[in-house]
Amino acid sequence: MFDHSVHDSRSSVEGADDDNRESTTAVRLEGVSHQYGSTGGRFRSGDERTVTALRDVSFEVPMGTIVGLEGPSGSGKSTILHAVAGLLVPTAGTVELCGTDLAAQSDAERTRVRRRHIGIVFQRFHLLPSLSARANVALPLVQEGVSRPDRRDRATTLLEAVGLGDRITHLPGELSGGERQRVAIARALATDPNVIVADEPTGELDTATGADVLELLTDIGRERAVLVASHDESTLSVADRVVTLCDGQVVENDA
Questions:
Q1: Which of 189, 222, 228, 240 has the most other CB atoms within 10 Å of its CB?
Q2: Boundaries of each ABC transporter domain copy (predicted)?
Q3: CA 233/CA 236 separation, integer angstroms
Q4: Residues 95-123, mean pLDDT to the nearest whole number
Q5: Considering its fold, how many domains does the chain have in total?
Q6: E strand or H helix that includes residue 98
Q7: Residue 54: inside a domain, yes or no?
């Protein structure tokens, strides 16, 4: 389903980093814990109100592997995705992305690493409604300073690769839920990242459409590391390994 030749098109993207796909481990979490503090709320005891989202979480995601995260709401799945994407710095522990310790980076450096090496697929797509499918896919390349012709070529190639070559000029409101998720996946691939993180990628889709999206993610996972969080058994069935979380702790890791 997915045209893997899209990797070749990135050679024309100006300023792109060289991939490090020979590295065995794309993502490594070691002893990761995280607490969220309130905005000034306190218990009567005077202790600051905090919520422990993760407790000593450790696992790895090799290249070419899909790892699923399962667990009830509040178990820490989304917090792990945010930590891997460099959107938060954990309270304790190490999160390495392609050998880089994200916690040791400045905010600007983490942003740069995320833009170059992470693709994010959201449950509710997060497409800009006023932009065409092609313009939505090209957005990450605008931030990278890629020229407009190269952005258009890259976005067109990716949309063709996910089966939307005839929908490139359509607005999100003119697309089905499955088509919008395909646009979101194409956008996540715009910078040819090493790692894809997906948060409930089929949660807004019907069974048949969700199956098509899962097939696409499976194809993508052959050459990247994919970390997918879901409650859905069919979504987790595409994973090579499933990490089960409860109350912020790993209770099972079926490596």
A1: 228
A2: 27-255
A3: 5
A4: 91
A5: 1
A6: none
A7: no
